[in-house]
Design brief:
The complex is a heterodimer of chains A (262) and B (325).
Chain A (H helix, E strand, L loop, with lengths): L18 H24 L6 H12 L9 H20 L8 H10 L5 E2 L2 E10 L3 H19 L4 H8 L8 E6 L5 H9 L4 E2 L3 E2 L3 E11 L2 E2 L2 H30 L13
Antiparallel strand pairs in A: 1-7, 2-3, 2-6, 4-6, 5-6
Helix pairs in contact in A: 1-3, 2-3, 4-8, 5-6
Chain B lengths: L15 H15 L12 E4 L2 E5 L16 E5 L2 E4 L5 H11 L4 H5 L1 E5 L13 E2 L7 E5 L26 H10 L7 H9 L26 E2 L3 E2 L29 E7 L22 E4 L19 E3 L8 E2 L3 E3 L2
Parallel strand pairs in B: 10-13
Antiparallel strand pairs in B: 1-4, 2-3, 4-14, 5-7, 6-7, 8-9, 10-11, 11-12
The chains are: A alpha+beta (262), B alpha+beta (325).
């Protein structure tokens, strides 16, 4: 059974869940979805054919799916109605104030810590077989010569690296992300310099570091909007969940068992 | 937090997670099943070596995991010239008494267009929302691919269909063979050409000639069958590819041994790759007679799809491979 996207709740990972628990969860989702659809009907919420088509295009996009059965369209319309009913229920939830956001930042400061990082590029020659080994050595020698001749690192990376097209960019590399040998090299490189050829379990590399940032904490003002959004979302989810619980209590719900192979 | 500027493909980044995945995939490759006992009649010995797998072509489906293009190395192996035919599968059933999953379930999926009256006369049921051209037919199985009233006696050289991945694996074991890895299948299907769309080149109908059995017309209502076939075709209906492999694309989807995952190969070894260690669906390659450019443009050699291992339909079959001594 499909978990409802429209409820905007975090879909739990079904993998490894006991079948009985998974079934309870599926039934609960179906009940909530049905209640929201009833609410949408009672509130006069509608989805036009054009809106359903636009949503299908957004979700399915490619030309491979231009032929959709009515089942797909109906499911899209229902999803949109569930989303709209959810939004309608939570439309009066107030946005959090500055002091609430500051409080959250004070209590959860670690969430906004960032590790030491270096802005890095690399040229890589992957080695999978002994044949690759010889090729990689040859290519790295050519790349080193070109760098020594003064060509830009990006240009040499796009010409010689196994990973072309991004100028060898790895963006900001955080401590703890990359294999240890790679990290040992790039975190020790002075800014604006490149390494000699070195080897990791993937193959041969030449690395270049253009910026180095120490570990630290993002200032409050930079994350204030993000925190406000998060708190608002949590408040919306909480209200939606309470409302659904109340609606369930006020409803008559019968869950019919289905034939296993139906 | 520092901003990330450009995002390189995962296969370019030397992360710890990728190193772990690489190591696991290398182990899995070394531990892969090897079978060297099956009869090699009607099999082609392929030399292995390197080939470029996957595609980054704009007509492809990146979300399926068709890319990136990677240089894959394979050990030599034998591959069936043809998909397993009804006549071959009948021998297996006769020798072993094997009962397929569709027979045990008592029903299977049949394409509505293959049924005389859309299946109404034999109690067809809609059971797949959104794809109402698939009908659930009681009694459909490999011997009666379109359900009661159908049989395969007039089509011994058509590929066997209504066989699940589990059925295909059982056949392969009996024959002293195995199902191909996705890499082996694609290498064989490419026929020695490099990075071409189809097993014969880049043009679908070179010189106006059809090279495979797919859909012409408007899917799913009208199949004009300009290629000569509205449903499955004999396995040798069209010319073979450069390796002598027939019916590599179109006709029926072919099961591969690998579990399906759209990103696994980005971190895995490229030497005899075998797919992830677990999953929910198995890889299928080659597309089928139901594929059309506007609906399922997956009769390209790099295209991939998947289905659960117990699924059977009227457009899925398989072929086997065998290792060299």
């Amino acid at each position: 059974m499909r978990l409802s996207r429209g409820l905007e709740m975090d879909a739990p990972n079904a993998g490894g869940m006991e079948p009985a628990r998974l079934q309870r969860l599926a039934v609960s989702n179906l009940v909530q979805r049905t209640l929201l659809l009833q609410r949408a009907a009672a509130s006069g919420l509608r989805v036009t054919a054009a809106e359903a088509d636009a949503e299908r295009l957004r979700l399915w996009g490619s030309s491979s799916n231009t032929v959709c059965g009515t089942g797909v369209r109906d499911a899209i319309v229902e999803d949109l109605l569930v989303q709209r009913a959810s939004a309608d229920i939570t439309r009066h939830v107030p946005r959090p104030g500055r002091s609430q956001c500051e409080e959250f930042y004070r209590r959860n400061g670690k969430l906004f810590d960032f590790p030491e990082a270096v802005r890095t590029q690399h040229i890589v020659c992957n080695i999978h077989t002994p044949v690759d080994e010889h090729r990689a050595n040859e290519v790295m020698k050519l790349a080193s010569d070109r760098l020594a001749a003064g060509l830009s690192f990006s240009r040499v990376a796009d010409q010689y690296s196994d990973c072309k097209g991004v100028g060898g960019s790895l963006g900001w590399v955080m401590r703890g992300e990359m294999v240890p040998i790679f990290e040992d090299v790039v975190f020790a490189l002075p800014v604006g310099t490149r390494s000699a050829v070195f080897r990791t379990e993937f193959g041969l590399h030449i690395a270049h570091v253009s910026e180095h940032r120490s570990a630290g904490r993002t200032p409050f003002e930079k994350v204030r909007m993000e925190i406000a959004k998060r708190l608002h979302e949590e408040a919306r989810k909480s209200l939606l969940s309470q409302t659904l619980l109340q609606m369930e209590r006020e409803s008559q719900i019968f869950v019919m068992e289905e034939d296993e192979h139906a | 937090m520092p901003e990330q500027t450009k995002t390189p493909p995962p296969c370019c980044v030397p992360t710890r997670a990728r190193a772990t995945a690489l190591k696991l995939s290398q182990k899995a490759s070394l531990a892969r099943e090897r079978v060297t006992v099956g009869d090699t009649t009607d099999m082609i010995e392929l030399p292995g070596g390197e080939f470029l797998m996957g595609t980054e072509d704009r007509d492809g489906f990146p979300a399926d995991g068709e890319g990136p293009i990677r240089r894959v190395t394979l050990t030599p192996f034998f591959v069936d010239m043809y998909p397993v035919r009804n006549r071959d599968f009948a021998q297996f059933v006769q020798a072993t008494g094997y009962i397929t999953e569709a027979e045990r379930f008592g029903w299977s999926f049949v394409f509505a267009g293959d049924l005389p009256d859309g299946g109404r006369g034999i109690g067809a049921e809609d059971s797949v929302p959104g794809v109402d051209w698939w009908k659930r037919i009681a009694g459909a199985n490999w011997q009666a691919p379109e359900g009661p009233g159908s049989d395969v006696s007039s089509r011994p050289d058509h590929p066997v269909v209504q066989v699940s991945w589990n059925d295909a694996a059982a056949y392969a074991r009996w024959a002293g063979k195995r199902l191909p890895t996705e890499a082996e299948w694609e290498y064989a299907a490419r026929g020695g050409l490099e990075q071409n769309t189809y097993p014969w080149g880049d043009e679908l109908t070179p010189g106006g000639l059809h090279q495979c059995n797919i859909w012409q017309g408007t899917f799913p209502a009208v199949n004009t069958a300009e290629d000569g076939f509205a449903s499955t075709a004999p396995v040798d209906a069209y010319p073979p590819n450069g390796y002598g492999i027939f019916s590599a694309v179109g006709n029926v989807w072919e099961w591969c041994a690998d579990w399906f995952d759209p990103v696994h190969h980005q971190s895995a070894t490229t030497v005899d790759p075998v797919g992830p260690s677990s999953g929910t669906t198995r890889v299928m390659k080659g597309g089928s007679y139901l594929c059309h450019a506007t609906y399922c443009n997956r009769y390209r050699v790099a295209a991939r799809s998947s289905n659960t291992p117990d699924s059977a339909t009227s457009n899925i079959g398989f072929r086997c491979v065998r290792d060299c001594l």
